[in-house]
Amino acid sequence: MRSMSVRFIVGVMIMGIGVPIGASPSNAQSIAEKAEACAGCHGLDGKPTDKIIPVIWGQQLGYLYIQLRDFKRGDRKNEIMQPIASALEKQEMLDMADYFSKKPWPDLGEPRASKEVSDRALSANRSVGCTGCHLDHFQGDGTVPRLAGMSREYLTKTITDFRTGARANNPGMSGLMLATSPDDLAALAEYLAGL
Amino acid sequence: MNRFSIGCAALFGMSGVLAGPGIAQEVKQEGKAAAGAATIAPVTQQQLNAADKSSSNFLLTNGNYAQTRFYPAKQIGRDNVKNLHVAWIFQTDVKESLETSPIVVDGVMYVTTSFSHVYALNAKTGEQLWHYNHKMGPITTFCCGPNNRGVQVLGDLVYVATLDSKLVALNAKSGDVVWTADIADPELGYSETMAPTVVKDKVLIGTNGGEYGIRGFVKAYDAKTGKLLWTFNTIPENSVGVWATKDATGRDMHRDIQAEKDQLAKTGDPYQKLGGGVWQNPSVDLATNRIYFVVGNPSPDLDGAVRPGDNLYTDSLVSLDLDSGKYVCHFQYIAHDVWDLDAVSPTVLVDVKGKDGKTIPGVIHAGKTGHLYVNDRKDCSLIRFSEAMVPQENMWVLPTKDGARMLPGANGGVEWSPIATDPSQSLAYAINLHQPMNYFVENSPYPNGKLWLGGAFKTIPSEAQAGNITAVNYDTGKIKWQVKTPQPMIGGILATAGGLVFTGEGNGKFAAYNSSNGKELWSFHAGAGVNAPPSSYMVGGKQYIVVGAGGNTQVDFHRGNNIIAFTLD
Fold first, then answer.
1. Chain B contact set for A99 (CB, 8 A)
2. Is residue A82 within 8 angstroms of chain B, CB to CB?
3. Which of A70, A101, A132 is the last residue of a domain?
4. Residues near B366 by beta carbon (within 8 Å), at least 6 away in sequence
5. In DSSP terms, which residues pair with B375 in a beta bridge?
6. What percentage of chain B has pLDDT greater than the value 70?
7. pLDDT for B124-166, tens place per residue?
8. Distance between CA atoms of A50 and A55, rounded to whole angstroms?
9. Section B111-120 average pLDDT
10. pLDDT digit string (tens) for B204-247?
11. Residues A131 and A172 in one domain
């Protein structure tokens, strides 16, 4: 992983400097080239190489941009993503986010949750109001991420990180996760993964 | 991926096409009209001033500048409303929270949907004349749904505010963009879901963002050019106020004033990130050239420790001079709110009985607290507040780490739903929510434009929820009648000279009630939540009632995409 990220950073620096803003063909090609390096973790076909790595193919554009921005700012901590994001300027972040948002969300093959688990998850949703931001199919919009069909492992890790503060770039989410019981959260992770 | 409803295809305004098998057709790019032009005569300021007397058009979101939501047509009345039937249905491309107040001008209807789409329809047949599909920017920040509450027309321009915090003027006939103005930075938490109010060549607009640490405002833009004319910051640099320990109803809010003063000494005035959005249209008093609006909650909603002081002018009635945007007066309903029981339902200007029984110009507002407040239009002072429309328990218990139960819940009371009034009966009609909630508080620093609630509010699954339609006499403060509904209500209500009120519910029921006693006289089941304010109009000598049936994100009512018009034979 480390050598991968170093190569990526070098590649980005070579291609990134002096690239004109706007969707000219040469710019578009360089975005695709930059994006190839992301496949090392996030998957060649959009299916991440590890279940605790998030899907980014088909994710909401605004959300992808905000995460890259927050990695660069240090608001969100991650050893691998921080150096990668730090090499990107704002327009490149928007371009990369746009590129991945247009990809089809991969089918991770997670099973549909049982009725019992689903009922519990939906009851928790009615109480906390997840769909108020994530919308009624948990598809998200703008800066609010899609949760539907994300891996159970990544959802669980994210929920836990919000609760402990290990992920500190959304205190609103931290508050909501702390106000929700662990059993409800486990049901939500299983339910969302199976959507 | 087939899981998305067809409506989602409309969301990606930038690309227009969703990758994946089986996804529906490409949505038109912004600016290009569909077949058909919307032929209207330019709307004059005189027409707008007299909107309360027009029984053919519906020119403003809340009917007229006083926002009475009282429609003067009487063709549909108590005796014949039982014969009301569907005239037409229009199905928009967007299946998501539908909160629009349809506007009707010369037989052309303008409606909006979630994600800031605008449609022009033939008000007689429901046929689409044009569709504006706003090219949404990459950053949108919204707490409570991607909804839009409507447009207003002045001259030959249709004005709409968008989720990515822009103000757009469209050609009323074709839907082409004439000008666009950036209102504020969405990355900092600003967005728009309200309809603008257009008056005397000014477009007035508030902002969302009280859940994100913004500094709220009302802005006025030049209606012809989009140039910014004035900005009123809803949070003054000295936001501390008078250290009020009781709310407008006289109840103790359990503030620790000393702790707040200590905090103020440490961190200074918190005005820059204090919130105070303005969610809904201001009312306009043409005689005095003043506007009246209510201001939303302070940021963060639940954690008062980081924002010492009364947090002016959050949770307040505010009046400004229309031409200059200068402050005239205010009245704060709740100082230093830590329950998100902010002021959102739009103000209504009606003559009211003053404290001494004399009739004076008044301004009324239905609060999340569950009270209807009646204030003096001259100096904003409180005259009276009504009986509580919803159960209140444990009022002003402070939120805790493990949750403290209080009624009403954080949606109220009365949410953003506009009220209606019947001045001949001195009645105001409000739709209510009863949602027992636990209030949690959790400290966190300002998160750079992310959600900043300072905790959470959760409904209590073991406790039943419900709603009401309540008629309150604003001269006495007494409840005249109340109809209970099985679910909390959010959307809006319309009163008519035919002696009726019309309102809808989350389960799809849309009904007419006798405005004097609340007796149900007609109903229809729309198949999706009727959670929008109804309008009325006349075309070809026939009166119509029209309402959106598309559900609601905030209370999670069944989504749809219908605009439904009803008429008699």
1. none
2. no
3. A101
4. B345, B372, B373, B389, B413, B414, B419, B428, B430
5. B363, B382
6. 94
7. 999 999 999 999 999 999 999 999 999 999 999 999 999 999 9
8. 10
9. 98
10. 999 999 999 999 999 999 999 999 999 999 999 999 999 999 99
11. yes
Which CATH number is A63's domain given? 1.10.760.10
Inform me whether the C-beta atom of residue A62 falls under 8 Å from chain B C-beta atoms.
yes
ipTM for the predicted complex comes to 0.80
pLDDT, one tens digit per residue, over B308-340 is 999 999 999 999 999 999 999 999 999 999 999
The domain tally of chain A equals 2
- Residue ranges in chain A modelled with pLDDT below 70: 1-29
End position of a domain, from candidates A101, A134, A165? A101
Is A171 an 8 Å CB contact of chain B? yes
Residue A76 lies in a domain: yes
Identify whether residues A53 and A89 lie together within a single domain.
Answer: yes
Cβ contact B138–A98 (<8 Å): yes
Q: Please check whether residues A6 and A97 belong to one and the same domain.
A: yes
Is residue A48 included in any domain, yes or no? yes
Within-domain flag for A131? yes
Q: Is there a contact between B141 and A142 if contact means CB atoms under 8 Å apart?
A: yes
User: Shortest Cα distance from A176 to chain B (angstroms)?
Assistant: 6
Instruction: Specify the pLDDT at position A24.
Output: 54
Does B10 score more than 90 pLDDT? no
Q: Mind telling me how many Å the CA of A124 is from chain B's nearest CA?
A: 8
pLDDT at A26: 53
A80 is a domain residue? yes
Question: Rounded to whole angstroms, how far apart are CA atoms B292 and B286?
Answer: 11
| List of chain A residues whose C-beta atoms are within 8 Å of the C-beta of residue B529 | none
Instruction: Please check whether residues A94 and A6 belong to one and the same domain.
Output: yes
The residue type found at B190 is Y
Q: CA of A60: which chain B residue's CA is closest?
A: B138
Do A67 and A55 form a contact (C-beta atoms < 8 A)?
A: no
Clarify whether residues A6 and A66 are in a common domain. Answer: yes
Q: Which two tokens stand for residue B33?
A: 């009209």
Torsion over CA: A65, A68, A73, A74 (sign): positive
Which one of A68, A107, A127 would you mutate to disrupt binding with B, by most B Cβ within 10 Å of its Cβ? Answer: A127
Range of the domain at A183: 115-193
